[in-house]
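Board notes (copied after class):
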Amino acid sequence: MALNKTNTMATVATQAAYQNGENWLNSVLGYIWNNYIYLKTTLSSELPWAKVVPLEGTFLAWIDLRSSGLNHNQLSRVIRSKAKLILFEGYQFGDGGQGFMRLNLACPRKTLQEAVKRFVTALNQAHENPPPLEIMGIPVSSCGCCSS
């Protein structure tokens, strides 16, 4: 393996980024910030129980969905099957992440708007009419063990 050898183009690109990339970086950071404000404003008005955590040096927004009334499995299923989105699930980042989802803000605004629209629609529907609880893909009410 040639881990100790550098790629000439990578060296030139790194040097160019450090010497001339400040305007580009500031532009990208501003764009991501504006996407964050869009997400926060939209969820505040359309999903008031969902809270967007303040950004801390990242392009991934933490969304607190613990007040949704849905458990982790229900949230995941609704977001994937109804909203047709794949988000980073908070539990993957430790126990404190239960009930949170992470959304990538480093994308074109049009892409974010479409994702947020589907996210809001799916979660509002699920909040009003929660999906059934399941164990290994079988609705709990039809497994026979929980009925009286």
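Comment from the instructor: DSSP finds four helices and six strands in the chain. The chain has a mean pLDDT of 87.
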